[in-house]
Amino acid sequence: MDENGFFIENIVLAHRFYAHPQWVSEEYVKARPRHGLVYVLDGSAVYEMNDGSVIHAQKDDLLYMPEGTLYLTRSQEEGFLHLTINFKIRGNISLPRHRHCAENERTRRDMLRLVSEWSHREQFYREKSIGMLYLLLCSQLEICQNSVPIAAEKIRSAIQALNVENNAFPSVASLAAACGMSEAYFRRLFQQVYGISPLNYMTQRRIGYACDLLQSTNISVEEVCFASGYQDPAYFSRIFKKSTGLSPSSYRSRSTAE
Questions:
Q1: DSSP for 23-75?
Q2: 58 and 47 in contact (C-beta within 8 Å)?
Q3: Cα dist from 194 to 29, 157, 210, 224, whole Å
Q4: pLDDT tens digits along 150-188
Q5: Any residues with CB less than 8 A from the CB of 217 and at least 6 apart, and which?
Q6: With contact defined as beta carbons under 8 Å apart, do 85 and 110 qualify?
């Protein structure tokens, strides 16, 4: 197995599941014990991730949750009909956490076939299902490899806007408008290219800029807060500590000591 390859050890679960309206699952709040693929057949759900980001899963969305991911799931008013495949692998697969697949019927078809094969449990169903999962994962890796450059070009105007000034942080809506697309579509493309939401990306930039200011200047923490695009010093301190593990003052002290 090469450094970019993977080996499927086992499929633990493959099923079709309907979650009633306002259903809440805390099964993976402490940690997901295995890798998972979720395909939304109908309805919608919100995935509240441990890192503070939120995924809005809708019809024809594919979600990939690596082993160890922490999150809570809530179905919306119309309920949540989805396919789930939980599996164990050795090696690496680099898939986006959230991708819309309406333009690619193959993903939906492959998921349905695999779940059907697993559910009927006929002769050699396990071996056939693992073979199907190999094909499914490989097809997703190929799709992502081919589509990321295209998606990156589509959101290039937004990245240029962010790069005008290191501490420029426009709204997600304005970034989407700059790219000539809806906010929901922009969020999906951004997640596909960078692996995180636009808000998390901007938070990382803000905190990175704040770290530079704390290391290279003597301005107050409050001034660093405002210069980094935050309006509330207390909120800034909470976000900073969540991102770095240290308060702004402690970060500056440690940097000075080093």
A1: -EE-TTSS--SSEEEEEEEEEEEEEEETTS-EEEEETTEEEEE-TT--EEEEE
A2: no
A3: 24, 15, 21, 26
A4: 777 888 888 887 766 555 567 888 889 989 988 888 888
A5: 224
A6: no
Domain boundaries, the chain: 6-147, 156-257
Average pLDDT over the chain reads 87
The Cβ of residue 136 has, within 10 Å, a number of other Cβ atoms equal to 20
Give the Å distances, CA to CA, from 246 to 50, 60, 243, 255.
19, 40, 8, 11
State both tokens at 128: 């056939």
Which CATH number applies to 6-147?
Answer: 2.60.120.280
How many Å apart are CA 84 and CA 112, to the nearest integer? 10
**pTM given for the model:** 0.61
Q: What single letter denotes the amino acid at residue 168?
A: A
Q: What kind of architecture, by CATH, is found in domain 156-257?
A: Orthogonal Bundle (1.10)
Bridge partner list, 131:
none
